[in-house]
Amino acid sequence: MKSSKRTKGLSVEAVVATGVGIAIVFLLKRFLPIPTGVPNTTIDLGEAFIGFLGAVFGPAVGALVAFFAHLFNDLSWGDPWWTWIVADAIFGFLIGFSRNFLKLRTEPLTKKKLIQFNLLQIVANIICWGIIAPLGDILVYSQPAGKVFLQGVTATITDILSVGIVGTLLISAYAKTQVQKKRLTKD
What predicted TM-score, i.e. pTM, was given to this entire model? Predict the structure, then answer.
């Protein structure tokens, strides 16, 4: 069932998903980080949930959830690290474009669509964590290149795995709950 009520361009459903998504991703980032052995870098299950929300609700929800959940997580530890917060928002925005080809609410989920989703998330992770975050750390925080690129490569690999495994499972489970138009038949 689609909601026709809109709030500044987003449906009421998308606004609610954004708020709930921020809370869930914050909790995943804050209380379930899995250490990687690289300082300030964890296996982040929150990224999988951002991927899922982006796939269902699109770029705006993906970006807002990623931005605010990351911001609140950073604030809970101390100061915000803006380069990674912005990189996370860009990741959420980019992964949100998967909604356009997944069409989870109206079409069946296929292996081809899951492959496309995973190709998109791999590219988005490389752009955000392998390029934007480390370069931002160098330019904004004058961090040493070796350190931040090690963190960026680690985050890229672990987030690709997190989104690829957990995000794909979330999308697949969600798709099974949807009644697509083509599946409706008269008894």
Answer: 0.90
